[in-house]
Amino acid sequence: MKNGFTVGLARITAVFIVAVALSACAAFQKESFTVGGEITDQGQECVTFRAEDGTLYALANKASRFRPGDKVRVTGHLALMTTCTEATTLIVEKIVLLAPGS
Question: CB–CB of 97/66 below 8 Å?
Answer without folding.
Answer: yes
